Amino acid sequence: MQLEFFPSRTLTLYLVRLFATRIIGVLLMLVLVLQMLDLLSESGDILAYPGNGEPQLWTYVSLRAPQLVARFLPYSVLLATILTLATLNQNSEVIAMKAAGLSAHQVLAPLLLTALVISGVSFAFNERFVARASATLKAWQAVDFGPIPQDTAVRSNVYLRDGNNILMARLVTGTGRATVLDDVTWYRRDSRMMVTEQVRARRARWTAAGWALEQPVRFDVHSTTQTPLPALAVAPDVPPATVELTNVDPDGQNVFELAHTIRALKASGRHTDELEGKWWHRLSGPLSALLMPLLGAIAAFGLARSGQLLVRAVIGMALGFAYFVIDNAALAIGNFGGYPPLVAAWAPFLLFALIGETVLIRTEE
Q: Are residues 47 and 118 in the same domain?
């Protein structure tokens, strides 16, 4: 028995079923509660747009739910681990398995296998559904919950440098020469970076002379006068390719699209550490589910009648939540250049894998 990683087939299926049903139950509970709270906070903005009603609320739920599932699936695995192992310990099933000759790693093997499958499903779900839902939801929010744009690659509040001048657009839609800037403001600045002139336009499109403003209105700062202009083209040195690489949303792109964006930004000499950290985290993030049985294993070993089962469960939860805190902190530090992107994404996973294995070995007996 000691030479086999998994226990008997019957016991393996029993533990997998026990663990999987608890993961699903905890995940449904968390998503339903959080979705209701989130919908209550956003429903006012959704219904504020003329013509929106119940169908738009359900549309919001369909776009927000995948994000909640992706975010709280690792937490669900952690809580399901504590519930499963604490129940097995309370019913003396762990003692029976150890009396049959199983080691701690063999007891946890079915849970680790289930968590590995959950990690794979989580990665596929994130790339296939979450990225698309995130892009669509952000595009919808950018138009204040109006008609959902056909082009989900909508960017909001984009600022572009035109030498000393600044070109700002509230919304950017389209790609290539079909790029359209909405609610455009162009600021002319002098050598001291002081704004001397402001030009506003409803829309701008790319032409050979630059961004052609539709019905531009000029405001002169010194004379405080406002003058309508017949036509004006600004920022000829800011082509659509530059606009496309501005305000990149990594959450709205899958790993292949994000890798292409990173290569394009590098080719243009842009800083990509934050995006590279997000790319690596798209791989390491789903694997966090694999850590949860290891970090929560402390709840399984030790005599339940000793009165320390609750303390062990709390320690297991603390280890799991500490991982999420350290993981987010490392990613944030990596975004500021404190860590290389690879280290920022993978160091917390490896660190807590070693901590979990150490705690498991020391508490097995």
A: yes
